[in-house]
Design goal:
This protein is α+β, with helices and mostly antiparallel strands and 267 residues long. The chain has 2 domains: 114 residues, 2,3-Dihydroxybiphenyl 1,2-Dioxygenase, domain 1 (Roll), CATH 3.10.180.10; 115 residues, 2,3-Dihydroxybiphenyl 1,2-Dioxygenase, domain 1, CATH 3.10.180.10. Helix content is 16%, strand content 41%. The protein is built from 4 helices and 16 strands. An 8-stranded mixed sheet has the order 2-3-4-1-5-8-7-6, with helices on one face. Strands 10-11-12-9-13-16-15-14 form an 8-stranded mixed sheet, covered by helices on one side. The radius of gyration is 17 Å and the shape is globular. The chain starts with 22 loop residues before the first strand and ends with a strand. About 3% of the residues have low confidence. InterPro entries: Anthracycline_SecMetBiosynth, Glyas_Bleomycin-R_OHBP_Dase, Glyoxalase_6, VOC_core. This is VOC family protein. It comes from Streptomyces tropicalis. It holds the Pfam family Glyoxalase_6.
Length: 267
């Protein structure tokens, strides 16, 4: 992580409406919906309800009755990588998508309406990392943050930060800060003085089997105990839990291989 997220409201607060450029939702497209729901339901205590079906079967995950994430079904004939995708709030998805194209990104899905919930597009930045855009209608985005089982941070892992950071700054008006010692290629993206996402350049150390990608961090009360549950539920431990300046962190993968991080945030 480039910088710890701000200490969250202990009651699990979320904004009434996300400011443009703020990560507002995370979604996962999978091949085996039932197995995936069982895994995350047991790991995080999520329950599920149907969501918009424009891209195929889709459910929203609920924690204590509030929406935290989405899971959708990939078409059976599409052999696509299974990965968590962050969505960034936009007041005008069509305009933001067109700006992304003009700045060297691509738009693979949309823009399209998701019933009354809102309007979306899915694309990739110039490095190839996939992200989503969300223009809220009835669905504002993640309804609870800062408690175990909720997304708490998103970080782009890429080759180098300079070019791709300019792309996101143009889209969303971010300010950048470079934390850490000289020689490390890390950037924290800010909106209105608040850290909202990170970018980390790995150069040749970036895993070839993944390429540039966004990493989603989910809050966990006890990452060490969560690792045992992940393994018991058919997932995989990628890195064991370790203490960092931002909290205790571990990386895991679900039964279909979608990687994500667990963090007990430093308070």
């Amino acid at each position: 992580m480039t910088e710890a997220p701000e200490s969250a409201d202990p009651r699990g607060g979320a904004p009434d409406r996300y400011a443009p450029g703020t990560p507002c939702w995370v979604s996962l497209m999978v091949h085996r919906m039932a197995e995936t729901q069982a895994f995350y339901g047991e790991l995080f205590g999520w329950e599920f309800q149907p969501g918009p079906q424009q891209l195929g079967p889709y459910v929203r995950a609920l924690l204590d009755g509030r929406e935290v994430a989405g899971i959708g079904q990939l078409p059976p004939d599409r052999d696509l990588p299974v990965a968590w995708t962050p969505y960034f709030a936009s007041p005008d998805v069509d305009l933001t998508a067109e700006t992304a194209r003009l700045c060297g990104g691509t738009i693979g899905v949309g823009p399209l309406d998701a019933a009354a919930a809102g309007r979306l597009a899915i694309g990739s930045d110039p490095s190839g990392a996939v992200f989503g855009l969300w223009q809220a209608g009835a669905h504002l985005g993640t309804g609870v943050t800062g408690v175990p089982g909720t997304p708490t941070w998103n970080e782009l892992v890429t080759y180098e930060t300079a070019t791709v950071v300019k792309f996101y700054e143009t889209l969303f008006g971010y300010e950048e800060r470079r934390p850490g010692p000289a020689g490390t290629d890390r950037v924290t993206l800010y909106l209105g003085g608040r850290a909202v996402a990170g970018v980390r350049g790995l150069g040749p150390d970036l895993p070839r089997d993944r390429g540039p990608h966004w990493d989603t961090y989910f809050e966990a009360a006890d990452p060490d105990a969560a690792l045992d549950r992940v393994a018991a539920l058919g997932g995989r431990i990628v890195t064991t839990a370790r203490d960092t300046a931002h909290g205790r962190v571990a990386e895991v993968a679900d039964p279909e291989g979608a990687r994500f991080s667990l963090i007990r945030s430093a308070r």
